[in-house]
Amino acid sequence: MRNEIRYRGWDEMGNSLFMKSLKMLYKFFNITWTKLFIFTISIITISSCQSEEKIKLEQYYIGGKEIYELNCANCHQKEGKGLKNLYPTLVNSDYLKDKEKVIYILKNGLSGEILVNGKKYNQAMPANNQLTNLDIAEVVTYIYNEWNGETKITEVKEVEKVLKRK
Amino acid sequence: MKKTIISAFIIITATSIFSCENSSRKLPIMGERDFVNGDSVFHKIPDFSFINQDSLPITNETYEGKIYLADFFFTTCPTICPVMKKQMLRVFEKYKENQKVGILSHTIDPRHDSVQVLKEYATRLGINGKMWNFVTGDKSKIYEIGEKSYYITAGEDSTAAGGIIHSGAFILVDTKRRVRGVYDGTKETDVTKLIKDMEVLLNEK
Questions:
Q1: Shortest Cα distance from B125 to chain A (angstroms)?
Q2: Rounded distance, CA A95 to CA A88, Å?
Q3: Residues A80 and A33 in one domain
Q4: Whole domain around residue A95: which residue ranges?
Q5: Are A77 and B86 an interchain contact pair (Cβ–Cβ within 8 Å)?
Q6: Could A86 and B86 be called an inter-chain contact, meaning their C-beta atoms sit closer than 8 Å?
Q7: B83 CA to chain A: closest CA distance, Å?
Q8: For an engineered disulfide with A159, which of A133, B67, B115, B157 has Cβ 3.0 to 4.6 Å away?
């Protein structure tokens, strides 16, 4: 008996203009969401077709960006442009042509005067002993891909080779 | 009749609210205060004397009639100082022609940061003129004025990068040597607020 009353109440409400418009809205969104879902799935499928190499590069790039912003961006700035004549730029920098030297400096620091794109700098850079070889490979990949026109990974092997030698 | 009264009331309220917002925003006076003979005596930056990047003595008299910003840094600091200096450069660019504004950067590593080192640092930052002083001096005096007068923390810590830990605060001091604001010099939004507050302080009578 009680249930009947409740059902009747629902029916009346269901027929009201408000509920009708709600239902229409629901239908509309239902269709949109379905479309969106299919779209997302297809995007994921397509992107998973990327080569493994490309995915690895992306991983290095993202990891490297994080390491950069944590360890380097204070001085060299988030955009890599350095600060006045105090900290040199990393964007299209001729100093970065010797990648082995860069790897060494990243780990061990640097002091004394250097020449970057024709400008003299003389501010010591601290060593980064806390960075692992993988960290260095990632951050070098980021710096060279973001600002120096490279589109490839700097492998951990390369880093190991340099740091073992010196 | 009733309408005129109501509208007059609304106009009066509106004008009073607006006039409050425009003219009477005042910066707080910071620090402990004493009462002497019924008057409040505020915390004040005491007399000081340091040497700047041009080997000139810089004292409290250098800042007479000026508002100024104080901060503490060291040139070999790899962590927050470069960020602070980048933000301080914003203030410098805005007020470098203004005779009523000064900047006073104390080194907390005077053993390394000699006059020559400070000079080179300032030049490399593109700073010239008398507006921004980088000062060095007796280490204990710098730490004392930093901690007791400008309310910053600083200390040697071998585990920290660069060997010294310190706060990245910018301290705003008024023409009467009273602290009127403390800002985080590593945060862009905080420094934007600071620049607004400096405008308020410059217009204070």
A1: 5
A2: 9
A3: no
A4: 52-165
A5: yes
A6: no
A7: 6
A8: A133
Same domain? For A89 and A131 the reply is yes
Give dist(CA A161, CA B5) in Å, integer: 88
Q: Are residues A9 and A82 in the same domain?
A: no
Q: Phi/psi of residue A132, each to 5°?
A: -80, 170
A130 touches chain B (CB under 8 A): no
Q: Same domain for A22 and A93? A: no
Are B145 and B152 a contacting pair, CB within 8 Å? no
Q: Are residues A138 and A60 in the same domain?
A: yes
Is B126 in Cβ contact with A84 (below 8 Å)? yes
Output the six-digit token pair for B195: 């620049």
Alpha-carbon gap, residue B103 to B68, rounded angstroms: 5
Cα B42 from Cα A35, distance rounded (Å): 67
A132 and A59 within one domain: yes
Number of domains in chain A: 2
- Whether residues A86 and B124 touch (CB distance < 8 A) is answered with yes
Residues A27 and A98 in one domain: no
Q: What is the pTM of this model?
A: 0.73
Contact residues on chain A for B185, CB-CB shorter than 8 A? none
Interhelix angle B81-95/B188-202, nearest 10 degrees: 30
| The last residue of a domain, from among A48, A65, A82 | A48
Q: What is the pLDDT of residues A55-71, one digit of tens each?
A: 999 999 999 999 999 99
Which residue ranges in chain A fall short of pLDDT 50?
Answer: none
Say what the ipTM of the complex is.
Answer: 0.73
All structural domains of chain B, each given as residue ranges with its CATH number in brackets, are 39-202 (3.40.30.10)
Q: What is the CATH number of the domain that holds A117?
A: 1.10.760.10
CB contact at 8 A, B173 and B67:
yes
pLDDT for B34? 84
Q: How confident is the model at residue B162 (pLDDT cuts 50, 70, 90)?
A: confident
